[in-house]
Design a protein that fits this description.
The protein is of the alpha+beta class. The chain has 13 helices and 18 strands. It has helices at 20-26, 31-35, 52-61, 66-71, 89-97, 114-128, 199-221, 238-248, 255-268, 272-275, 282-293, 333-338, 345-352, and strands at residues 4-13, 16-19, 42-45, 72-78, 104-108, 133-142, 155-165, 170-172, 177-180, 186-187, 196-197, 230-233, 302-309, 313-321, 341-342, 364-365, 374-380, 383-388. The strands form four sheets. Strands 1, 4, 5, 6, 7, 8, 9, 12, 13 and 14 form a ten-stranded mixed beta sheet that branches. Belongs to the thiolase-like superfamily. HMG-CoA synthase family.
């Protein structure tokens, strides 16, 4: 069978950061509620000029060569922070990146799960068209109301995954198990800018979906946790993912295997603990964090994935690390995170909740903020205007 999987990974987040200790002080909370109760240290905060389009384009811009742009014939954007009810965000990104015109561009939605659906679609396309390359993007900005229980689980970021035959990072195994259940644990109607959340219920559904999907995976594929070097989880907040790992660890595991899984889990949450919840990209940020922070991985290792999207769809699948995967990684990711500009809580509230103020003709100009290489620069007659920013170090 022709190997298909992830050939390159790009990641970007916003240029501003809110430290959880500052948020705890402002909200009258014990800082350990966030640092220990959620395993969160900081949140990336996006200004009005940084949205899912600019983030996704910036993530892809890191990894795409001119050859990639000539061979990509499908651009798939997974998001639950869409900027338009009709036009797919992938169309903007296709244009910004200069990808050849004869490409299919689509947007996927099912809460935090849809990037996994996009990867499945990409895999099927490569099976049919082996010389093709598919760009899968997971881009989101998680927003909640000030002072709400969800405020501490916000975030912003995007992952870009290039799917090809004979990939250089991970090959997909043909062992996907998905489950759908019609529940209302987290949802955002069209008329609301922030979601409605039944937090405790959502947590229970996440863990129960994991338990039952994992049981079905074991049944169909004679799967054992001992077969995996690491297991990556959707990460609404890192502590929930840890509960997930503990949920599927059984007494048959040796002490050595448990230690390996826990050590690699810690590596997988390193970036999320500093960025927060990025919805569709959270699982794949965990995978990238695992690859760039683990000291205990080798080519051929089997990596497990648990994808979850409220509403709810979940999926478990696996992949194998490819010889030389380390050569495709970035060795200065932490420096990028450390360069983000810290915000006071007052500045965060002003920045994060600024909305476009349109005039009667549907026009809006924005104050300049720090962004990545792409930015939303204006809205003209209700049309969003994006540009590559030559100097994106302005405040």
């Amino acid at each position: 069978m022709m190997p298909i999987g992830i050939d390159k990974i790009g990641f970007t987040t916003s240029q501003y950061v809110l430290n959880m200790s500052d948020l705890a002080q402002a909200r009258g909370e014990d800082p350990e509620k966030f640092s220990q109760g959620l395993l969160l240290n900081a949140l990336s905060i996006a200004p009005v000029t940084e949205d899912i389009i600019s983030l996704a384009a910036s993530a892809a811009d890191q990894i795409l060569s001119q050859e990639d742009k000539e061979k990509i014939d499908m651009v798939l954007l997974a998001t639950e922070s869409s900027v338009d009810q009709s036009k797919a965000g992938a169309v903007y990104i296709h244009s910004l990146l200069g990808i050849q015109p004869f490409a299919r561009s689509l947007e996927f939605k099912e809460a935090c799960y849809s990037a996994t659906a996009a990867l499945n679609y990409a895999k099927l396309h490569i099976e049919k068209h082996p010389e093709s390359r598919v760009l899968v993007l997971a881009s989101d900005i998680a927003k909640y109301g000030i002072g709400t229980p969800g405020e501490s689980t916000q975030g912003a970021g995007a992952l870009a995954l290039l799917v090809t035959k004979e990939p250089r990072i991970l090959t997909f195994n043909d062992d996907n198990i998905a489950q759908t259940r019609d529940i209302m644990d987290f949802w955002r109607p069209n008329y609301s800018t922030t979601p409605f959340v039944n937090g405790m219920y959502s947590t229970k559904q996440y863990l129960d979906s994991l338990k039952t999907t994992w049981a079905e995976y074991q049944k169909r594929f004679d799967g054992h946790l001992s077969d995996f070097a690491a297991f990556c989880f959707h990460i609404p907040f890192p502590k929930l993912a840890l509960k997930g790992l503990n949920k599927i660890m059984d007494k048959s595991l040796t002490a050595e295997k448990k230690a390996q899984l826990l050590e690699n889990f810690d590596a997988s949450i390193s970036y999320s603990s500093q960025v927060g919840n990025i919805y569709t990209g959270s699982l794949y940020l965990g995978f990238l964090s695992l690859l760039e922070n683990s000291t205990d991985l080798n080519a051929g290792d089997k990596i497990g994935f648990f994808s979850y999207g409220s509403g709810a769809v979940s999926e478990i699948f696996s992949g194998q690390l490819v010889e030389g995967y380390q050569d495709q990684l970035k060795d200065k990711r932490q420096q990028d995170l450390d360069r983000r500009q810290p915000l006071s809580v007052a500045d965060y509230e002003k920045l994060f909740y600024e909305e476009p103020q349109l005039d009667s003709a549907g026009n809006c100009q924005f104050q300049e903020y720090l962004t990545g290489p792409f930015a939303l620069t204006a809205i003209k007659e209700h049309q969003r205007q994006y540009q590559r920013v030559i100097n994106h170090d302005k405040t």
